[in-house]
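In the current project phase, we have settled on a layout for protein records. One protein thus recorded is set out beneath this paragraph:
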Amino acid sequence: MSNTTDFINEEAATRVRILSEALPYIQHFAGRTVVVKYGGAAMKDSSLKDKVIRDIVFMASVGVRPVVIHGGGPEINSWLDKLGIEPKFQDGLRVTDGPTMDVVEMVLVGRVNKELVSLINQAGGMAVGLCGKDGNLVKARPIPNKDIGFVGEVNSVNPRLIDSLAKSGYIPVISSVAADESGQAYNINADTFAGEVAAALGAEKLILLTDTRGILRDYKDPSTLITKLDIQQARELIKEGVVAGGMIPKVTCCVRSLAQGVRAAHIIDGRLPHALLLEVFSDMGIGSMIVGSSFLD
């Protein structure tokens, strides 16, 4: 007589086992907000983009409230080139004069944002595209002491619109453009934007998708990944120069969000398939998690 397990498809059994093991995480994060800053290779590579979109829809389908923040630097550069406008940078920030700001707003709000909304909807989610201007969601101000045009920072966040959409089952997709009190539009670093929005929402997690494994003690050696650290340790790594270059604003925005109530911030490699699900719904984790000192042990 055959054993009943002989009739079970091995692949199906593996899927069921994985779902069963994910149940405690699904139960823990149900009803909680996770802010995802979407960028890097995961935004440019079509196969990776499909997996990120599916991860976001999966989270929403099991009761998590994902909020997506995005930039779009490469596409901005592409359109500037088409229009004969030379991209300029200063200290890692895009110099944004009037014509450049017009292109930034057109690309981020009109193209990248709506493409992501469409992809999420096609995957079975319900996405709504926004920018900082909508519902006075984010008020901007110019970065002080820098002559780089309409490059701003977050002055304030009004989370009511996002809260309302998320509680109704929608996935807010937000581009990092906002206006000041006079209505002037500003280009804001998407990492910084995501951190401040996460703080205003009291998010459970802030997750930054990047093109690196996370915070490395030696940037040339992926095996030196620091998997978990607290706010003080993160600040010390910046002072020591271990965190340098483009990683500084990412770590800084994580620290700021944690100081304002976000429970955990993650810098993960968006080049890994299903990086979001691996980070949220498994023990292994794949990047660097920064937490408040009281949660480190």
